[in-house]
Design brief:
Rossmann fold, 10 strands, binds iron/sulfur cluster, alpha/beta, 11 helices, binds thiamine diphosphate, binds magnesium ion, two-stranded antiparallel ribbon
């Protein structure tokens, strides 16, 4: 991939109220660097409504609507229709929601927005739990992870179920563009955002967002953990454009998933056997991705 200079302009200010090391702040920063000032944000209940909105420390240099938790997709469609009715063409409408607000409570609104073909961008920043309300498990929480609702005690070994594959659900709607991005790979991230900006129709980003308090690791490790997620194939980087899948980062040999899991307290209880089962899940997902890429039209 040709190297890309990250745009210098900032549309997110310092002085917000995120935790140190918050991956979700970098997701917002990079999305806005790519899309620029002619952007309208709609954000449901999630960490970002707390990070960015309390007056007088509002953190965004673009307009932001605080929408209902389940309504992000509908809100994008409504804002787009309003902008069109007012003759405002040169604006990107962006829904910016957490994994709980997307994989669970907002899934039908997302599906509606994709099915209607709304010209807008949906960003799911994925910190893999309902963090704002105290680390409850979501459909996007990975198998084996500790959360406050998937405890590690005599009766429970963390989350028993696998992570919901939101990208596959989105891809089934055949959107104009969908991509995974990771705050630890800003060049790849910005390249995809700049590409999406030029595409019309529904566009979706699944953004990997490490969360120090929820994942139980020191704040200075956010980028290292983000890199490990992709380099172990836990969170592969790829894009789907007009039905064509392209993996945007491939190592000759992926690192063992164990290295990623051992770096986080939420996985600290896992046994060798449990780690092997998670490795098998990761390998199977990676194989499906390679097969999708190999069968492109
Ligand atoms: C209808 C409704 N149910 C529950 C809540 C409480 N609530 C606010 S934020 C939140 C967690 C959101 O989780 P997620 O979407 O993953 O975003 P995160 O907090 O992790 O950034 C919940 C449950 C709410 N505001 N509205
Ligand atoms: S709880 Fe996690 S996602 Fe929320 S502000 Fe803190 S680091 Fe960011
Ligand atoms: Mg979340």
């Amino acid at each position: 991939m040709a190297r890309l200079t990250i745009p210098a302009e900032e549309y997110m200010r310092s002085g917000h109220s995120a935790c140190p090391g918050c991956g979700a702040t970098l997701v917002m920063r990079y999305i806005l660097k790519g899309l620029g000032p002619n952007t309208i944000m709609t954000v449901p209940a999630c960490c970002w409504t707390v990070i960015g909105t309390p007056f007088p420390t509002t953190a965004l240099d673009v307009p932001m609507l605080d929408c209902a938790f389940e309504a992000t997709g509908a809100s994008i469609s409504g804002l787009r229709a309003a902008a069109d009715a007012l003759g405002i063409k040169d604006v990107t409408v962006v829904g910016f929601a957490g994994d709980g607000g997307t994989a669970d409570i907002g899934l039908q609104a997302l599906s509606g927005m994709l099915e209607r073909g709304t010209d807008g961008v949906y960003v799911m920043y994925d910190n893999e739990a309902y963090m704002n309300t105290g680390v409850q498990r979501s459909g996007a929480t990975p198998r084996g992870a500790w959360t406050t609702t998937t405890p590690v005690d005599e009766g429970s070994r963390g989350k028993a179920e696998s992570k919901k594959d939101v990208m596959a659900i989105v891809a089934a709607h055949r959107p104009a563009y969908a991509a995974t991005v990771n705050v630890a790979f800003p060049e790849d991230f910005l390249k995809k955002v700049l590409k999406a900006k030029e595409i019309r129709g529904p566009r979706f980003f699944h953004a990997f967002s490490p969360c120090p308090p929820g994942w139980r690791y020191p704040p200075e490790k956010t980028i290292a953990i983000g890199r490990l997620a992709t380099d172990t194939n836990v969170f592969p980087l790829y894009e789907i454009e007009a039905g064509t899948t392209r993996i945007t980062r491939k190592l000759g040999k992926a690192k063992p998933v164990r290295e990623y899991l051992e770096a986080q307290g939420r996985f600290g209880h896992l046994t060798t056997e449990e780690i092997a089962a998670i490795q098998a899940d990761v390998d199977a997902h990676w194989s499906r991705l390679l097969a999708a890429e190999a069968s492109n039209p």
